[in-house]
């Protein structure tokens, strides 16, 4: 058992508290930067440009099934706007209707002021669409595909420049069937951009890619945005939306259940904070008892439970939970091997608004969870 004297315990408390306060100060700084951004009732900040996309009260059914139910949102020029939700939520139907590929039962969609339901042809050249499955012949090469698609447009992008932008130059003569998953996705992005669109719709861009290919693809999406293209990113990956999106809507069951910036949505959750402490096996049981007792008697500590890893205990409480945990451990002469704070994420937002938890280990599968 790790036991220290009073002075050593005080020193330990000071060191651990200092580490935790760094996280707390960073969190507070983030909160302030978010809450000082004033918005209009439609989520737009004063002085922003007119939306490049406006979706109002969109509804689409297939027989008895309601795929999209009263969906509304706006997209600002030059941003990456996310449409986030599980498979079957209505994300793809929404963007296909936006692109004029499907006709809505009711509601309006405007792209640069053009009603896509009344005049879908007028917006075709404004949009570049990368759908979930690439449908190219196995024998066509990267360069041939780009030149073929470029021939469909009056003012196409330079295929050579797209090859360079998307790191495909050295694969120009490689047949589609011989490309890796990440290379196929980069080609899909290139084909979506070859018509010089104002807006690119990227649908489930990184599904099936390994972690390294996913991160490389995220970097490319940001490079495309930096060229001035507005991006609609359809995804069921919470981490992808947090990394890339300036703003997003969360869709579940065909309805918008949350809307805002990733940081703003997370910051809007209840103020609970979580501290995870790890102990050597000999100390874990006593530490659990100390922290469980703390949760029962201290107003700033709401719960202490097994964190899922041997020797780790998760302590949840108010913003001042940091100030309760450290003195309690020091007072019991307990020295943790590690202390860390756990930040909330879009997964917590999804749980809060749907009552169901997203399981990243099972793709986009959802398991029942308690509403927070």
TrEMBL record:
Gene Ontology terms describing biological process: response to antibiotic
Pfam families listed in its UniProt record: ABC_tran
One GO MF term attached to the UniProt entry: ATP hydrolysis activity
EC number: 3.6.3.31
Protein name listed in UniProt: Polyamine-transporting ATPase
PROSITE patterns for the chain: ABC_TRANSPORTER_1 (PS00211), ABC_TRANSPORTER_2 (PS50893)
Annotated organism of origin: Isoptericola variabilis (strain 225)
Record's GO cellular component terms: plasma membrane
Domain ABC transporter as annotated: residue spans: 53-278
Tagged with keyword Nucleus: no
Mode of membrane association: Peripheral membrane protein
Record's subcellular location: Cell membrane
Tree of life domain: Bacteria
Keywords: Antibiotic resistance, ATP-binding, Cell membrane, Hydrolase, Membrane, Nucleotide-binding, Translocase, Transport
């Amino acid at each position: 058992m790790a036991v220290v004297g009073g002075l050593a315990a005080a020193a330990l408390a000071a060191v651990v508290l200092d580490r935790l306060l760094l996280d707390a100060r960073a969190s507070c700084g983030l909160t302030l930067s978010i809450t000082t951004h004033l918005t209009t009732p439609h989520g737009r900040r004063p002085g922003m440009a007119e939306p490049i996309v406006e979706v109002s009260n969109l509804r689409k059914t297939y027989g008895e099934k309601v795929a999209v139910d009263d969906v509304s949102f706006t997209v600002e020029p030059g941003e990456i706007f996310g449409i986030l939700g599980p498979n079957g939520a209505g994300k793809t139907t929404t963007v296909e209707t936006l692109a004029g590929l499907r006709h809505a039962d009711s509601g309006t969609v405007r792209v640069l002021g053009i009603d896509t339901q009344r005049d879908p042809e007028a917006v075709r050249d404004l949009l570049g669409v990368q759908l979930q499955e690439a449908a190219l012949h196995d024998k066509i090469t990267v360069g041939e595909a780009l030149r073929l698609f470029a021939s469909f447009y009056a003012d196409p992008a330079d295929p050579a420049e797209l090859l360079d932008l998307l790191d495909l130059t050295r694969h120009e003569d490689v047949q589609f069937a011989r490309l890796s998953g990440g290379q196929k996705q980069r080609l899909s992005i290139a084909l979506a951009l070859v018509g010089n669109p104002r807006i690119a719709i990227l649908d489930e861009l990184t599904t099936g890619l390994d972690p390294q290919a996913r991160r490389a693809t995220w970097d490319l999406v940001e490079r495309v945005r930096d060229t001035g293209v507005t991006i609609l990113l359809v995804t069921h990956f919470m981490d992808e939306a947090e990394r890339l999106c300036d703003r997003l809507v969360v869709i579940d069951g065909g309805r918008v259940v949350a809307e805002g910036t990733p940081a703003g949505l997370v910051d809007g959750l209840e103020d609970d904070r979580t501290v995870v402490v790890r102990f050597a096996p000999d100390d874990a049981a006593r530490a659990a008892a100390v922290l469980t007792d703390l949760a029962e008697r201290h107003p700033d500590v709401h719960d202490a439970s097994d964190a899922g890893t041997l020797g780790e205990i998760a302590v949840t409480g108010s913003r001042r939970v940091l100030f309760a945990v450290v003195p309690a451990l020091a007072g019991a002469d307990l020295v943790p091997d590690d202390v860390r704070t756990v930040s909330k994420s879009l997964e917590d937002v999804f749980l809060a608004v749907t009552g169901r938890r997203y399981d990243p280990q099972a793709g986009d599968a959802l398991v029942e969870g308690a509403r927070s």
